[in-house]
Amino acid sequence: MCGICGFYEPKKEIDKNQNFDFLKLMNDKLDHRGPDQEGYFNRQNIFLAHKRLSIIDLDKRSNQPFFSEDKRKILVFNGEIYNYLELKKKLSSDGIKFKTTSDTEVLLKSYEKWGFEMLNYIDGMFSFAIVDLEKKIYFCARDHFGQKPFFYYFKDNFFAFSSELTSLIQHPQVLRKLDSKNMLNYLHYDSFVGNQTALKFTFKLEPSEYLIFDYENNSLIKKKYWEIKYENKLIDKNFSKNFFSIFSKSIKNHFISDVPVAIYLSGGLDSTSIATLAKKELSIHKLKAFNLKFGNKSFDEDKLASSVAKELDLDLETFEFPEKDIAPTILNLIENLDEPLSDPGYLAVGMISQYVKKNNYKVVISGDGGDELFGGYEPFLKYNYYDKLKNNYPLLALLKLVGKIDFNESFEYMGLSYKFRIFMRGFSKVNDDFYNSRWLSSYLPEEIQKLVNPTAIGIDSIKEKDIYSFTNELVSNFNTDLEKLYIQYQRNYLPNVICSHTDKANMKFSVEARSPFLNKELFEYVNSFDRSQFLSKYKSKKILRDFLEKNNMSYVANAKKKGFTIPIALWINKYLKDEIKKLLSNEFKTLFKFINYEYLENIINEHFLNKKNNYKKIWSIYILLKWMKRNKIEC
Fold this sequence. Notes:
Helix content: 40-55%
Radius of gyration: 24 Å
Strand order of the largest sheet: 2-3-1-9-8-10
Mean pLDDT: 92
Shape: globular
Number of strands: 17
Largest sheet: 6 strands, antiparallel
Low-confidence stretches: none
Structural class: alpha+beta
Strand content: 5-15%
């Protein structure tokens, strides 16, 4: 796990010292991603840099940038190749020699052997850039699920890339200009989706995508190397056996490391299943586990985690976050956020990852991907109710009347009145594909129209169809409602929210988080079966529940699902009220004239008075404006 950056300066005559200073500025912003070593490469107009977090082959021989034997190919790489030992064996059988024991060398040798087709062979979480001096190209790629970030800028033949957006903008040629259309999508989706970023001419590689920048001909092309597909096979008697065979192999590969490995243990289905297989099936002993509690029963899962640790003989440490540290920790995490991301999961992971760092662990196992694989989120369960209600117009009309009653909403985890209001958002339109998008969103399109003055950001109007266009593009190639729901989680929520906050929060503290559920073969196998077979009316993830029942952990199998998050709605009122009030200050009103502050003030006051749980709306705009102010982004 590392940080990478670089650029190509197309000018014929360049100041190499000045450009190296730009490269150094970019790389310095990635210190937290790789505190163990840094490296640089420059030849003519080509600039590369790397920050290393040493995990596989700790020797300096594996430092980066990493060169081929002929010095004609140069690699900077962030991540892990989990099947590198298999690939090394395959390459060695063809007579290829190795001088290190690292996955970095295997990655570069794979490119030399298979070219762009290498992406069909590797399994891992990664983003990388290879400069091929013979072909005169930059070859850059991102992993199948989007676990590792890759930002890039391309304008006027100038190409630059980095692991983080705040690193990328250190180069003076990268414009700090807000992309208004993308910003509107952020307010709806809570993140910058697809290839979008907050800035003009700046993009992200999407999951399972690569680019080729031909610096001789000044061209850039992008291609997909893998797609998520769904089939409708029936589950047979071998399903469970085959699933756990693939899953166990993935867990085993995720534990390969030359430094100690720990696990995040929430006590939920995903992390408990991983811990159980690691201990009982793979005989991984002395497993260190970490859990976080906040002193709020509706959010904490420490009792479940403690029971699991006792059952599996894990070395569990539960960290109860001190009340006095809550506000300063949140503000510190926000100050280090490289792009706007309003999901509070970033804060939750950041709070526990700093504790992992203090305990001198560099690698931790995470349960990311289990919910996306098996439909573990609440919308998969409430979809059945939505499907029955959407055409029951008398009952729907009655529920809408109930929704107009002014209840004071609970700020506890998924309070009933709050859940009811969110559920009814799905019916603001009927018989369309965007109900889940409305359930998840901070702002509905009609609310964005009230919040943002379009002329102040250089557009004529804010159109609902433009905001929904990303979801529409995701679901357009799928037939059933359930497939359309799954693809939104596997191709939007997973990379743009879950993988994003896991990477950012852990790397803030130089911790590598690995997720065994995020395995290409595992997703291909499970996705080949009819999705409805994994859901019942009231519970999902039956295969994991049955597995844990057999392993004497029915208390986990039957527990109500909780997401790993924090009581941010409560904390806004208790610890962050003065900070939130700054949004309404003259300073913000002067800087960001595109906001309707009267509308925003009403949203904030409703929350402060405990009338409505508006934390998503407040947090979304707070994160955006704070980030823009800190990084001097022009509207």
